[in-house]
Design brief:
Pfam families: ZnuA. By secondary structure, the chain is of the alpha/beta class. The chain is built from ten helices and eight strands. The strands form two sheets. Strands 2-1-3-4 form a four-stranded parallel β-sheet, with helices on one face. A four-stranded parallel β-sheet has the order 6-5-7-8, sandwiched between helices. It is globular, with a radius of gyration of 22 Å.
Amino acid sequence: MFKWILSSLVIFWASDVFAKVNIVTTTADLAAVARDVVQDLGDVQAIAAPNQDVHYVDAKPSFTLLLNKADILVANGLELEIGWLPALIENARNPKIAPGGAGYLDASTAIQPLHVHAKVDRAKGDIHPGGNPHYMHDPRAAADVALVLGAKLAQIDPKHAADYRLNAARAAEAYRELAKSLRARVEALPKEKQQIVAYHDSLVYILDWLGLTQVATLEPRPGIAPNPSHIASVLKTSREAGVKVIVQEEYYPRKTSETLAQLLPANLVLLPGGARSNESYEARIKRGIDEVLKHLEAP
């Protein structure tokens, strides 16, 4: 009897000590921030791969299983995942991570969205009425997300509330310092070197953060493929402005950007779609923005 009681106590103690919060995020960048906040108190998995356009994710049964076991779901929001996430949540049968549940977090509630549209006109392309959803390109937004996630974790796991809040505050401070240091490099450049061309209109938070000027986009409207007349117009405008850098996320088609880079001439920079599985959020931002700044700073 004594051995049975002792064994039961050990099992109870072990499960209590080693129980971890299970976090699922929709994007790789949100997963990187979540790892900074939860540290060794939880496990984090992302649904979308870092090199994947999050607009278009296949709702695989394996993702449903992930969500079924999740304690917290962190979504990007602003309709970025609208084509696939609602079905996954419904099939997961996990009320706590459904919208309105204790374990659901729309990370976009932490930030001030840019490009909010009071009226949606689909003739203008693939736009998001609540605002541009690509805010995780901006470390200042990531800092706000970290703090909100820390508060959510504190609610879910109050025993470690102080740890989560401290981790979140430290991550937010690091992200903001990174944002300041990279912004200073742009401010040191002459105005004519602070210009880029983008493929898709997804860099608005980078422009706002770094103070860069986007001269044109290769897509005539968001989600609409480039056409010859528009490409010719972008080429003319870019030459007149003296643009030397074209920027796009790695998951968009590259052929048009590569052609424009040859004609200008200019350097094509492929931004990471998100943090790699073993990469910190700060390292992911540096990896992409350092490449942009290297070409802007070149003689």
